[in-house]
């Protein structure tokens, strides 16, 4: 296996990194919704928790019928079963990262998982 | 379980999200290295792949003795066993996200894992 993989996305509406980076523990997408736009469906997940990070702009997530305001710098975790839909604000688009990971899959992390040299 | 968790980090040197967001499939840190700074050790991981996203600035990752230049917008995946050390450039600091996930843990994702409503 290569010692690393690297990729620099363009500004497409959606860029998916799983295959481009040879990810095995996550799928990551970079998403750009224009002002007034939204992900055109409500969804939940079978196994994966989703972690969102807002890169720029403004919008909201409607989660189980509750609207959560989002702006640059916010982080949001949504467990698998919560129904969700993402919206840009009417005045301004929103750009965000969405990280999918299998719920409960992390065993150890940081110092506990590290090998120091 | 709550239907979501949300957090907005400050600009500390390092912010860890696992406990703040109740993550179960990842640890995520937001890191700010000043110009000329570096993570003060070389490390690898036992089980976790690391995914880096550069938020701003410039620097490099030295991975198995190879220097990989990094700047805003770059994504990098490092498998568990690769020895790595992160540096800011001499002229400019670097801010980045580091996502730790268990290598091989993702079973299905996106359409295959989704429940549409």
How would you describe what is shown here?
Two copies of one chain form a homodimer. Chain A is mainly beta and 117 residues long. Helices cover 0% and strands 50% of the residues of chain A. Chain A has strands at 5-7, 14-16, 27-33, 43-45, 48-63, 66-71, 75-78, 84-88, 94-102, 114-116. In chain A, β5 and β6 (66-71) form a beta hairpin. Chains A and B meet through β1, β3, β4, β5 and β7 of A and β1, β3, β4, β5 and β7 of B. β4 of chain A pairs antiparallel with β10 (114-116) of chain B.
How far apart, in Å, are the first and last alpha carbons of chain A? 21 Å
Order of helices and strands of chain A: EEEEEEEEEE
Number of domains of chain A: 1
Number of strands of chain A: 10
Q: Any idea what the radius of gyration of chain A is? A: 16 Å
CATH superfamily of chain A: Jelly Rolls
Oligomeric state: homodimer
Main beta sheet strand tally, sense and closure of chain A: 7 strands, antiparallel
Name the chain pair with the biggest interface and residue counts per chain: A-B, 64 and 64 residues
Kindly state the percentage of residues in helix of chain A: under 10%
InterPro entries (chains A, B): Cupin_2 (IPR013096), GPI/OXD (IPR051610), RmlC-like_jellyroll (IPR014710), RmlC_Cupin_sf (IPR011051)
GO molecular function, one term (chains A, B): metal ion binding
Organism (chains A, B): Candidatus Faeciplasma avium
Domain Cupin type-2 (chains A, B): 33-99
């Amino acid at each position: 296996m290569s010692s690393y993989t690297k990729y620099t996305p363009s500004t497409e509406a959606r860029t998916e990194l799983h295959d481009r980076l040879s990810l095995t523990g996550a799928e990551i997408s970079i998403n750009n919704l224009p002002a007034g736009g939204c992900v055109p469906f409500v969804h939940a997940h079978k196994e994966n928790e989703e972690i969102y990070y807002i890169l720029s702009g403004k919008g909201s997530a409607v989660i189980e019928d509750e609207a959560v305001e989002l702006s640059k710098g916010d982080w949001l975790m949504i467990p698998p079963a919560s129904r969700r839909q993402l919206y840009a604000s009417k005045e301004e688009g929103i750009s965000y990262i969405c990280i999918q990971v299998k719920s409960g899959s992390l065993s150890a992390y940081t110092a506990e998982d590290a090998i120091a040299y």
